[in-house]
Design goal:
The protein is of the alpha+beta class. It has two domains: 65-219, Immunoglobulin-like, CATH 2.60.40; 222-491, paralog of FGE (formylglycine-generating enzyme). The chain contains six helices and 34 strands. Strands 13, 15, 16, 18, 20 and 21 form a six-stranded mixed beta sheet that branches. A five-stranded mixed beta sheet has the order 3-10-8-5-6, with no helix packed on it. The longest helix is centred in the first third of the chain and has 20 residues, at 2-21. It is elongated, with a radius of gyration of 29 Å.
């Protein structure tokens, strides 16, 4: 009997110890951290799951959207020392955080602001994106700004898209950007969000009550999108990389001077080179030399278009943009309508060479040379995005192409999901070909003038060493060749 009592006590103590540590709430690994999917009352949260009092998991699933909206009453004509009431219309149990000019002040549904400026309340619930409402609080002793403040974008945007604030008054104002009531940027009317959330901008001037814009809801950008015309694009996040090649890289050219490049804006890039069927659908013609006899098992229309000049590519970009309801990227002689541009030149043309990119346009365009190499490398620093040496899976080149182009996407994609960045056909870039700088660059657009435009990636006709990530090429903008095509990008 004594042994049975001792055994029962031991088991009870063991069960108590196990449950109090959270071991019965989810599987654990040898490090003492919860693994995926389950909740624990203690310890670190596991990947995909959520820890209890010990902390949150590092790989939580996609957050939900709160079902209701948050409002502040009164919403206008508010002076300091006026009690505000927050009302949430959804069914979730939420917490409230009040802020003045981005600084935490109080919790609960009511708050009385003590100073002029922006006053916000954010509601939050575990597992959900928060929502924020903002009002302006005035000091009767101060003047009223003559203009209004707004953010372009129609009330919504995606992460990585630059937001621009416009103030319509005559006063000299300063800008303060907030995300969910927290200050994230100052001193500029532009801001590029790096996280999803609700963004506002407040303008202030000495001796005046400030004004706050309506909120713009910024959502996470999709990793891949497909347009109405079947153009598949991959999201390329902003970042910094080393462009060019080291002196030790075999077969490098002297024009590949290494320099640091920062791309401050994310962009979408074509997952594939533009195909013959895509070009035909937009331009109603197919200039390709390889217009028949595809490799066995490959589809003719899905081979890359070639025999297109740089000028042709500009026309294609603007026509496709119009077809999809996007604002065209290219302007020639003040017009974005390719039908106004006239016939595509077949010799060097100063008017077409002076083409401009329309600021704020949303349409398709050619990548800059820096965008192209950044996307090709996909985080690698080696000669090829598959390593220091080329293999059959790297791309199509002279030794494996059979002296012709191939259906896009038949070789392995790089780490960012882009196909045929090495070989198949050369790809036009926006830039004039010029000498690289040796200093760091931010969002470079290439040389200011030149004779030839940049081509990248090399082609089916070139030897393996020519397919290196840093390898540069050039050609005149008015000629098309059976080894030059292009790939699209979009903001």
């Amino acid at each position: 009997m004594k042994n049975k009592i001792l055994l029962a006590a031991f088991v009870a103590a063991l069960v108590f110890g196990i449950t109090s540590c959270g071991w019965l709430h989810g599987p654990w690994d040898s490090s003492g951290k919860g693994t995926s999917g389950n909740n624990g009352t203690g310890g670190s949260g596991g990947t995909g799951g959520k820890g209890g009092t010990g902390g949150s998991g590092s790989g939580s699933s996609e957050l939900l959207t709160l079902s209701g909206e948050i409002t502040i009453s009164p919403s206008t004509g508010i002076n300091i020392n006026t009690e505000l009431t927050a009302t949430y219309s959804g069914s979730e149990i939420v917490t409230y955080q009040w802020k003045e000019d981005g600084v935490n002040k109080s919790t609960g549904t009511k708050y009385t602001p003590k100073k002029a400026g922006s006053c916000s309340v954010t509601v939050s619930a575990e597992g959900y994106h928060s929502k924020t409402a903002t009002v302006d609080v005035n000091d009767p002793s101060l003047l009223t700004l003559s203009g209004n403040i707004s953010i372009g974008g129609g009330g919504s945007a995606t992460v990585g898209t630059e937001l621009t604030a416009t103030y319509s008054g005559s006063e000299t104002v300063t800008y303060r950007w907030e995300k969910d009531g927290t200050t994230v940027g100052t001193n500029s009317n532009k801001y590029t969000p790096t996280e999803a959330g609700s963004y506002t901008v407040t303008v202030s001037a000495s001796g005046y009550n400030s004004k706050t814009s309506a909120a713009v809801v910024v959502s996470a950008a999709l990793a891949e999108i497909t347009s109405a015309n079947g153009i598949v694009l991959r999201l390329i996040s902003a970042g910094t990389f080393t462009m060019g090649s080291p002196a030790s890289e075999p077969n490098r050219d002297s024009g590949e001077t290494q320099h640091q490049v920062t791309l401050t804006k994310s962009f979408y890039m074509g997952k594939y080179q533009v195909t013959q069927e895509q070009y035909q659908a937009v331009m109603e013609s197919n200039p390709s030399s390889f217009s028949s006899s595809p490799q066995a098992g490959e589809t003719q229309g899905k081979r890359p278009v070639e025999m297109v000049s740089w000028y042709d590519a500009l026309v294609f970009c603007n026509k496709l943009s119009v077809m999809e309801g996007l604002s065209p990227a290219y302007s020639i002689s003040g017009s974005t309508d390719p039908t106004v541009w006239g016939a595509v030149p077949t010799s060097n043309d100063g008017t077409w060479n002076a083409a401009l990119i329309v600021a704020g346009s949303t349409g398709y365009r050619l990548p800059t040379e820096a965008q192209w190499e950044y996307a090709c490398r996909a985080g690698t620093t080696t000669a090829y995005n598959t390593g220091d040496t080329i293999s059959d899976s790297t791309g199509w080149y002279s030794s494996n192409s059979g002296s012709k182009t191939h259906e896009v996407g038949k070789k392995s994609a790089n780490a960012w999901g882009l196909y045929d960045m090495h070989g198949n056909v050369y790809e036009w870039c926006w830039d004039w070909y010029g000498t690289y700088p040796s200093t760091s660059q931010t969002d470079p657009m290439g040389a200011s003038s030149g004779t030839n435009r940049v081509v990248r990636g090399q082609s089916w006709i070139h030897s393996a060493d020519n397919l290196r990530s840093a390898r540069r090429g050039l050609d005149n903008p008015y000629s098309g060749y059976y080894y030059i095509g292009f790939r699209l990008v979009r903001p």
